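Give me the fold.
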Amino acid sequence: MKNLLITLCFLLGVFFSYGQSFDGKGDQKINIGYEAYGFGTGVKATYDYGLGKLFSIGAGASAYFNDGENDYYIYARSQVHLGIAFDFPCQFDLYPGIELGYLSSEKIGVSGYLGIRYFITKKMGIFAEIGNNGSVGLTFNV
C-alpha cells in the first residue's frame, strides 16, 4: 500500500508539473531523437529559438546510417506554432515547418514536416515529426 501511494504521488507530480510547449519570443528548445529517411535511419539533433508568439527558427543536423554508407544533413529550420492559435493545453504544441540545408549526397536538401510536442515535466517532453522524413525523441526546455 505504501508503494502504491508513493507511485501515485510521483505520477501526479509528473502530470501536474508540465512545462510550456512554446513560450513565444525568446523560447529555446533542444530536440534529440531517432530519424528515418530515404537514406536510412539515424539520429537527429535540433535547436529552436522563438522569434514571436507563433514563429521560431533554428538549426539542426542529422546523421544517417545505411548499409555501410553514411550520409548527413545540416540545415536551418522554421516553424509556425499552432498550439497557441488553436488554444491547445499549454504542454501541447502542433507545428508545421520547413528545413533547408546541405545534404551530403544530393548537395541541397529541402523537407517539410508536421510536428507534435508534449511536455511531461517543466524541462522535458517528447516530440514526433512526420513529413519528408520522420523522427521521434525527447525535447528539452533550455
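Residues 4-19 have pLDDT under 50 and may be disordered.
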